[in-house]
Amino acid sequence: MKNQRIFPAFIIFLVLLIGIFILLNYYSKQVSIRKDGYFEISSRVKGEYNKAAEIKNRLEGFIQSQVVIEKADKNLYNLVFGKYTTTYDAGNAAFSLFLDSLLTNYRIQLDGKDTLDVYGNTLFVAKQDGMPSLFSINLPGRKISPVWSDWGEDVVSLDQSPNMNNVFFLTVNGISKKGSLGNLNDARLYNFYRPENRVKMIDYLKNGVQYYSYWSGGNRFMMSFTRLDSASNQSVTQNISVYDTTAEKIKSETRTYNLLKEGFPNPPKLNEDYTSEMNKYAVFVKKESDGKSGIYIKKTYTTDEFPLVKTGGELKSIAWSSDDTYLFFIYSDITQISKKQSKKERFLIIYDADSKKIIRKFDPQDFRSISVQGRLLIIETGSGSDSKILFYDYKNDKPYYALSVDGGCAIKNLPLSK
Fold it and tell me: Residue 244, Cα to own-chain centre: how many angstroms?
């Protein structure tokens, strides 16, 4: 009799234990904020829990991550997923899902709190009250916001690190004429650390006639500033400085050139590397028998080559997608208008290297530069007040947004018209 009473009690206890486990599992999937130092994507869903669960199931079919449903309020849920080491990577992944209509909204979070999405808020240079200043565009919302401006300081050059956390920009108090050269007046170099929204001047360069800059290897910023020698009108001095990601100057050297003997010095340019990001492909140019230039692509470590275009002009600019699939390049060519008249034009091509197929050849425009930001090809056209920026979704082969503002806009350089 005793054993008969114990057995039903054990069954009831087991059922209760299973019920508690199911409830705990249910609520743990609704509320789960991971505080592990990784960046996450959070998307808000309005409606019943079943709607959030439906979107969760659809997302998990496209991403390699568990999606957690977090209850924010009545009929309001957050879908939290992903584990990314940088805010750029998280923003890149989220915006790609946004482009594919798998997300309608999103925020980037760190340890459960909203943080700056450096990918989704892209910096550019445009004019505010006639002064070249720093702006950002929120890509999902297509909203422009001022970031930095100071009276008497025109932003003339902008350099963003590959992960977009660290920014260097140059300001001048206008450009004047010094003989045949344009003089950069009161040039100042600033560092902008975006995660902390911190801007500080790191070098007062005074006056100069040439500035050149670039990021090297993702963690070194190099700049060259050339000025006229105050002691001799026949000489110029060139200062070359290298900074790390904390904006500390780790190297500096100064060279003096005699203009009559050595001529005007060239800046120490970044070596052109036409190899793809993961070293799968390489692009090269060679002279053809008819005198034109052939632009070719080949797989690295092989001799097999495939022709892309033949041109009477030259290869101007090249960029690759991070997965080595897509090649983007600008080249110039001579277009015959009539029997007696021709003109040089610039063309842009999107090429699928894996399938050996041209995806898109744009009509000739004044293409100035291209860069790749995740799923977007950033195309800059025109100069000065006519400059524009096109954000192009190359995987879906369609424009995402054309940015055009009064006075022009640019990702790196906005020439002054003074």
Answer: 19
C-alpha span between 65 and 379 (Å, rounded): 32
Contact (Cβ atoms closer than 8 angstroms) between residue 184 and residue 209: yes
Distance CA 78, CA 72 (A): 6
Using CA atoms, how far apart are residues 351 and 280, in angstroms rounded to an integer? 15
Residues 6+ away with beta carbon under 8 Å from 74: none
- The CA distance from 337 to 344, in Å, is 10
Q: Return the minimum-mean-pLDDT range out of 213-217, 277-281, 388-392.
A: 213-217
Pull the structure tokens for residue 196.
């902390």
300-317: pLDDT as tens digits: 988 889 999 999 999 999
pLDDT tens per residue, range 106-136: 999 999 999 999 999 999 999 999 899 999 9
- CA angle, residues 368, 358, 305, in degrees to nearest 5: 100
Q: Which of 171, 203, 169 is nearest to 187 (CA)?
A: 171
DSSP letter string, 227-287: EE-TT-TTEEEEEEEEE-TT--EEEEEEEEEEHHHH-SPPP-PPPP--B-TTSSEEEEEEE
CA nearest to 328, candidates 288, 295, 300 = 295
